[in-house]
Write a structure and sequence with these properties.
Blueprint lengths: L2 E7 L3 E6 L2 E3 L2 E3 L5 H5 L9 E7 L4 E7 L6 E7 L1 E8 L10 E7 L5 E4 L3 E7 L4 E7 L8 E3 L20 H4 L4 H8 L12
Antiparallel strand pairs: 1-2, 2-10, 3-4, 5-12, 6-11, 6-13, 7-10, 7-12, 8-9, 8-11
Amino acid sequence: MPIDLISEHLNGLKVLKPKVFGDERGFFLESYKESELKKYGISEKFLQDNHSSSTKDVLRGLHFQWDKPMGKLIRVTRGSALVCEVDIRKDSPTYKQYFMIEISSKNFLMLWVPFGFANGFLTLEDNTEMQYKCTAEWNPKAESAIKWDDKSLNINWGIEKPILSGKDSFAESLNDWENKKESDLITFRKRNI
């Protein structure tokens, strides 16, 4: 198979790995193939592709969007990053739990993240490039961030002072955000994935 399912986590996350064909010239892989992903229950339509480049020790996140909720198929095409997903679905048995994995241009792993997770990553090398396919278009009026070092989540990033954006520096804890925004929250729809 061109894409293998490596493992599943937190009631919806899927670690995938495409088959890599390599020789002295380089390599070739299929990073996206609709029929292969459908075999693993990933049938969402992708509406937007994102690509970021970051220096070492940049931490982006933990970001999420509630209208329209956004699923992501994530991979690193240069360098390496520690990717963290926090389950923020209140009705999920893994609510407030997180999963962390290193994804790099050398291990070729991909991560499927259904909507209902807050996404973040820490770059482990300079010029790390992250690419992800999204199931919704970005909506700046319906997105937010959870503080990267939220005490209630107890995420071990392995760094004390990452490089943060202004937005991420002032993000709230998940508990504060939910208490403040309760009237704005929608219940994330469950999907069979």
